[in-house]
Specification:
Layout (H helix, E strand, L loop, with lengths): L6 E10 L4 E8 L5 E7 L7 E6 L5 E9 L4 E5 L2 E3 L6 H13 L1 E13 L8 E12 L11 E6 L3 H5 L7 H21 L2
Parallel strand pairs: 4-9
Antiparallel strand pairs: 1-2, 2-3, 4-7, 5-6, 5-10, 8-9
GO biological process, one term: nucleoside phosphate metabolic process
Cofactor: Mg(2+)
GO molecular function: ADP-sugar diphosphatase activity
Amino acid sequence: MSRPKPETLAVRTVARSRLFHVQAVSLRFANGVEVDFERLAPGGGSGAVLVVPVRADGFILLIREYAAGTDRYELGLPKGRMEDGEDPLVTAVRELREETGFGARRVEPLRVMSLAPGYSAHQTHIVLARDLYPDPLPGDEPEEIEVVPWPLDDLHGLLAREDFTEARSVAAMYLARDALADDGDRLHE
């Protein structure tokens, strides 16, 4: 059953910073109920990529970097913001090179995910990167990022770590594992 979208009655800016533009949105639903929501303004860039770099030996290249939101060092996957109009696969290769020092001869999109659709239009492109080779590119990070190889077949051990908490990275690991298993199934058919 398809419902009509609510009618937008008003949109106003509540707050603005270097990173965020918060809007209050007044809506009227088909049943007549009027509600105010807050959201991050759409159009603040083209989204982001999150890269799952897989070495030939089955290890994933994770990165450890400081996360201001949790005020600690977190383990996760390479990621970055897409420039306006930039292809997600181009962004993925650039971020991979900047954050791990490796390029990839094979990159493929796995899925586009929303982060918090209740208040943000932001989307993250999950990309699988294979056939890695050394190809560093200077990045914009304030300190050198630590690269941590992790065996994909020890996902349980990774999830048990207190410093691996980012939901996008967790979901991406499962998507990559399934994609690689599907490739293996096709190879044996």
